Amino acid sequence: MKFINVILSIVSAIYYVFILLPSSLLTRGSEGRKLFQFEKKPGGTYFHERNHAYGKSDFEQG
Amino acid sequence: MNILGISGLYHDAAAAITIDGRVAAAAQEERFTRIKHDEKFPVNAIRYCLRESGLKIDDLDAVVYYEKPGLRHDRYLESFRYYAPQGFKSFVSHFPILTKWKYFFKNKIKKHLREIEAFDDSKLRILYTEHHLSHAAGTYYPSGFDDAAILTIDGVGEYASASICHGQGNKIKILKELRWPHSLGILYSAFTQFLGFKINNGEYKVMGLAPYGIVDSEEVNRFVKIAKEYLIDIAEDGSIWLNQEYFQYATASGGKIKVKKWEEIFDMPMREQDSSLEQVHCNLALAIQLITEESVLKMAAEAKRLTGSNNICLSGGVALNCVANGKLMKTKMFDHLFIQPASGDAGGSVGAAYAAHYIYFDQKLAADRTREHVYLGPQFEDKDVQAVIDNHEFGYSEFKDDRALCDAVAKLIADDNVIGWFQGRMEFGPRALGNRSILGNATSLDMQRKINLKIKFREGFRPFAPSVLLEENQKYFNIDRPSPYMLLVTDVHQSMMRPLPQGYDQMQWRAKLDVNRSEIQAVTHVNFSARVQTVTPESNPKYYQLIKSFRDITGYGLLINTSFNVRGEPIVCTPEDAYNCFLQTNMDYLVINNFLFSKIKTSTNGVKIADLKDAVQIHK
What we know:
The structure holds 2 protein chains of 2 kinds. By secondary structure, chain A is mostly helical. Chain A is built from 1 helix and 1 strand. The longest helix of chain A has 25 residues, at 2-26. By secondary structure, chain B is of the alpha/beta class. Among the domains of chain B are: 2-132 and 346-360, Nucleotidyltransferase, domain 5 (2-Layer Sandwich); 382-617, Carbamoyltransferase, C-terminal domain (DHBP synthase, Alpha-Beta Complex).
């Protein structure tokens, strides 16, 4: 089990360097990233609309 | 319909079983492992829930985990992508685990369930709820309402850190949510860290410290202003935005804040753990409390606007902020208010089970689904107390009936003794509500100090809560409704207050602590607030009788009630836990079922208690 964890850590490190880091640099201005930037919205809201009635299908996907 | 709900793996693991929409058993893993806030998969709690409900794993219609590991994984990935190249070390240590959970979580659940008993793998149905749906379901379904606004606020689940939902009939609709990394719960934890307390543990302490802050003082106002200028923006609907320049929780584990930056803006050093508490710390605690209340009240108003309901249900860790709850109650924005007693993540287990029962299986609302009590944990028979009796070196007594026991114990409390009170089923949730409680005389001037320092070994500033007979509630407190779960803070009634020295409001916190300010001093906080538990014969007959016996002796129908544990340990679960805690502290007496244990060495039989007519004296 420990061996698997070591392998996964190495894979994670490779993933970080070769995929996550470049994609981070390429998507600096994207919409999803704005969650992390501090921009006060006077009179606005920071809530996200969901308007979703939960049903059976909401339970099946982990 | 039998459903097992499970929460855990981050903190406060727990399990709960519902049978036909009613909770048959629920318990937190920490109570069995004796590791506070234990996050490990709750094998012991599940084992207990199955045993208590008389079910096998094969009898379960579903096993429901309280959140979605895949979505949490995706959220982590988003955070690290944003912050790269920061957070490399944290990514490499956390990401493998989260990835395994994303793709192999069902295997993990099955593996742990196999530790409990064998079962038919092909029959086991494993489901997941969103984290905030677990909280929403956990408070709406047992509330008894058919229509209610639901407000859930905590640190974070998958993406959401707060949600506004509408419960109607057996359905829940989510209307809005606040998303990571913006979180009121995390903000409170960040201040908890800066004030030198442990995250996910010290938030209660910050709440207890805040009343020592000087209201409307220049320093408190300055702290609020700084926080709003640099750290947080609160919108009119209560939603918030946190300035990530001052926080590091998105990628780093261990701490929430960038300490140097906080020290710069607040112009004070971060408090070291266990170092001296000064007035400035109280003022900062008051500042974050005020900010939290502002956000909660505004979110509640938004929930009212969106749903038009006269009822509100609260849950999530922030719903344990009883002061904010009390303020919401006072606004009369809603006619009825229900707060899930296990509002933290442990309660997610109950909520997950409810959600599956009512939404996934589309069951009709149970006619009598209101939860009159929180006593869902294990209980122990007299034969289970035998090991304690065998080890006990001093005298003890056994009482024939509850009334005689309550009369004798009430007399001991009236004489300023501190009692460990262990009865019936253990409470589910962070509050001891009269079954795993330490009890004392609320009118005693020195009782707060005695219990804090000599029995619970905790900070002297921490307040104690009263358990009061429901019918006498308004004699002592300004509250117009029952508060059965100790989740509402209200003011002590004017008639209980004593004249105050001049300049009391501006006094430093230590000086305030020593002022004789109330007839019920030990449960009156320095700002004349109290976190009330109302007790009825229906909710807890034996505990009710004890308080009534105390009233018959003293004229006061209330007691100090604090959880039966010492600092850093979970609340006791078994008679052995209770006995060990009794021996390790300066508690005077321990009551388990109808056995009364003392620390008095007697040459004769049993314990020397006056008028102990109904006790069966037993030799040691």
